[in-house]
Known about the structure:
By secondary structure, this protein is an alpha+beta fold. The protein has a domain at about 1-30. The chain contains 3 helices and 7 strands; from the N terminus they run H-H-E-E-E-E-E-E-E-H. It has helices spanning about 5-10, 15-30, 140-150, and strands at about 40-45, 50-55, 65-70, 70-75, 95-100, 105-115, 120-125. The chain has a 4-stranded antiparallel β-sheet with strand order 1-2-7-6, with no helix packed on it. The chain has a 3-stranded antiparallel β-sheet with strand order 3-4-5, with no helix packed on it. Strand 3 and strand 4 (about 70-75) form a beta hairpin. The mean pLDDT is about 80.
Amino acid sequence: MRSFDLAPLYRATVGFDRVADLMDRVLSSDVTQPSYPPYNIEKTSDDSYRISIAVAGFAADELSVDVKENALIVAARKPAEDDARTYLHRGIATRAFERRFHLADHVRVTGATHADGMLHIDLVREVPEALKPRRIEIARGDEVEGKVLEA
Protein backbone atom coordinates (compact mmCIF):
# COMPACT_ATOMS: atom_id res chain seq x y z
CA MET A 1 0.00 0.00 0.00
CA ARG A 2 1.24 3.50 -0.85
CA SER A 3 1.86 6.05 1.87
CA PHE A 4 1.80 9.16 -0.34
CA ASP A 5 -0.45 10.75 -2.91
CA LEU A 6 0.58 11.50 -6.52
CA ALA A 7 -2.21 14.08 -7.06
CA PRO A 8 0.17 17.08 -6.78
CA LEU A 9 2.23 15.58 -9.60
CA TYR A 10 -0.86 15.53 -11.83
CA ARG A 11 -1.67 19.16 -10.99
CA ALA A 12 1.87 20.51 -11.55
CA THR A 13 2.75 18.77 -14.82
CA VAL A 14 1.37 18.63 -18.32
CA GLY A 15 1.84 15.62 -20.58
CA PHE A 16 3.47 13.35 -18.01
CA ASP A 17 0.42 11.18 -17.48
CA ARG A 18 2.19 8.03 -18.65
CA VAL A 19 5.06 8.56 -16.20
CA ALA A 20 2.69 9.20 -13.33
CA ASP A 21 0.59 6.17 -14.26
CA LEU A 22 3.72 4.04 -14.43
CA MET A 23 4.83 5.23 -10.99
CA ASP A 24 1.36 4.59 -9.63
CA ARG A 25 1.33 1.06 -11.08
CA VAL A 26 4.81 0.25 -9.75
CA LEU A 27 4.08 1.57 -6.28
CA SER A 28 0.72 -0.16 -6.00
CA SER A 29 1.77 -3.61 -7.16
CA ASP A 30 2.64 -6.07 -4.43
CA VAL A 31 3.69 -8.74 -6.92
CA THR A 32 7.39 -9.55 -6.80
CA GLN A 33 9.28 -9.65 -10.05
CA PRO A 34 10.58 -13.04 -11.19
CA SER A 35 14.32 -13.47 -10.85
CA TYR A 36 14.76 -16.08 -13.59
CA PRO A 37 16.62 -15.71 -15.84
CA PRO A 38 19.20 -13.25 -14.53
CA TYR A 39 19.98 -10.26 -16.74
CA ASN A 40 22.09 -7.09 -17.01
CA ILE A 41 21.18 -3.75 -18.56
CA GLU A 42 24.17 -1.67 -19.60
CA LYS A 43 24.57 1.70 -21.26
CA THR A 44 27.08 1.28 -24.07
CA SER A 45 27.07 4.91 -25.27
CA ASP A 46 24.98 8.07 -24.88
CA ASP A 47 22.04 6.72 -26.88
CA SER A 48 22.58 2.96 -26.97
CA TYR A 49 21.96 0.17 -24.49
CA ARG A 50 22.42 -3.59 -24.22
CA ILE A 51 20.36 -6.13 -22.33
CA SER A 52 22.25 -9.37 -21.60
CA ILE A 53 20.23 -12.36 -20.42
CA ALA A 54 21.73 -15.62 -19.15
CA VAL A 55 20.04 -18.35 -21.20
CA ALA A 56 22.26 -21.36 -20.50
CA GLY A 57 20.82 -24.55 -21.90
CA PHE A 58 18.73 -22.87 -24.62
CA ALA A 59 19.55 -22.97 -28.32
CA ALA A 60 18.99 -19.92 -30.50
CA ASP A 61 15.93 -21.47 -32.16
CA GLU A 62 14.29 -22.01 -28.74
CA LEU A 63 14.43 -18.26 -27.96
CA SER A 64 12.19 -15.50 -29.26
CA VAL A 65 12.57 -11.72 -29.07
CA ASP A 66 9.49 -9.63 -29.90
CA VAL A 67 8.65 -5.93 -29.68
CA LYS A 68 4.99 -5.03 -29.16
CA GLU A 69 3.66 -1.60 -28.16
CA ASN A 70 6.80 -0.27 -26.39
CA ALA A 71 7.43 -3.63 -24.71
CA LEU A 72 10.34 -5.97 -25.40
CA ILE A 73 9.30 -9.57 -24.78
CA VAL A 74 11.95 -12.28 -24.49
CA ALA A 75 10.66 -15.85 -24.22
CA ALA A 76 12.14 -19.33 -24.25
CA ARG A 77 10.46 -22.69 -24.66
CA LYS A 78 12.19 -26.07 -24.47
CA PRO A 79 10.68 -28.89 -26.50
CA ALA A 80 9.25 -31.75 -24.45
CA GLU A 81 12.06 -33.98 -23.19
CA ASP A 82 12.04 -37.68 -23.46
CA ASP A 83 12.22 -39.51 -20.13
CA ALA A 84 15.22 -41.58 -21.25
CA ARG A 85 17.62 -39.45 -19.19
CA THR A 86 18.09 -39.96 -15.49
CA TYR A 87 19.65 -37.02 -13.65
CA LEU A 88 21.56 -37.48 -10.40
CA HIS A 89 21.64 -33.69 -10.02
CA ARG A 90 19.93 -31.15 -12.23
CA GLY A 91 21.27 -27.64 -11.58
CA ILE A 92 20.85 -26.08 -15.03
CA ALA A 93 17.38 -24.59 -15.17
CA THR A 94 15.87 -24.96 -18.61
CA ARG A 95 12.32 -24.09 -17.66
CA ALA A 96 10.31 -21.93 -19.98
CA PHE A 97 10.24 -18.21 -19.25
CA GLU A 98 8.92 -14.92 -20.51
CA ARG A 99 10.64 -11.67 -19.51
CA ARG A 100 9.16 -8.24 -20.36
CA PHE A 101 10.99 -4.93 -20.54
CA HIS A 102 9.11 -1.66 -21.03
CA LEU A 103 10.85 0.53 -23.61
CA ALA A 104 10.82 4.31 -23.50
CA ASP A 105 9.52 6.31 -26.43
CA HIS A 106 11.86 6.36 -29.45
CA VAL A 107 13.88 3.33 -28.26
CA ARG A 108 14.14 0.58 -30.84
CA VAL A 109 15.79 -2.82 -30.91
CA THR A 110 18.65 -2.97 -33.41
CA GLY A 111 19.62 -6.62 -33.05
CA ALA A 112 20.07 -9.70 -30.91
CA THR A 113 22.91 -12.21 -30.67
CA HIS A 114 23.17 -15.54 -28.87
CA ALA A 115 26.64 -16.68 -27.86
CA ASP A 116 28.18 -18.63 -24.98
CA GLY A 117 24.89 -19.03 -23.10
CA MET A 118 24.10 -15.30 -23.23
CA LEU A 119 21.45 -13.50 -25.25
CA HIS A 120 22.51 -9.92 -26.03
CA ILE A 121 19.85 -7.47 -27.22
CA ASP A 122 21.06 -4.11 -28.55
CA LEU A 123 18.85 -1.03 -28.31
CA VAL A 124 19.24 2.53 -29.53
CA ARG A 125 17.36 5.70 -28.66
CA GLU A 126 16.57 7.78 -31.74
CA VAL A 127 14.98 11.11 -30.89
CA PRO A 128 13.23 12.58 -33.94
CA GLU A 129 14.51 15.91 -35.22
CA ALA A 130 11.19 17.56 -34.35
CA LEU A 131 11.62 16.63 -30.67
CA LYS A 132 15.24 17.75 -30.29
CA PRO A 133 15.76 21.03 -28.47
CA ARG A 134 16.13 24.10 -30.66
CA ARG A 135 16.87 27.74 -29.96
CA ILE A 136 14.26 30.34 -30.89
CA GLU A 137 15.59 33.71 -31.94
CA ILE A 138 14.06 36.60 -30.04
CA ALA A 139 13.31 39.63 -32.19
CA ARG A 140 13.47 43.14 -30.73
CA GLY A 141 10.21 45.05 -30.41
CA ASP A 142 11.12 47.82 -32.88
CA GLU A 143 12.11 45.25 -35.56
CA VAL A 144 8.70 43.61 -35.37
CA GLU A 145 6.87 46.93 -35.65
CA GLY A 146 9.02 47.96 -38.62
CA LYS A 147 8.20 44.72 -40.45
CA VAL A 148 4.51 45.17 -39.79
CA LEU A 149 4.55 48.77 -41.02
CA GLU A 150 6.43 47.84 -44.23
CA ALA A 151 3.89 45.18 -45.12
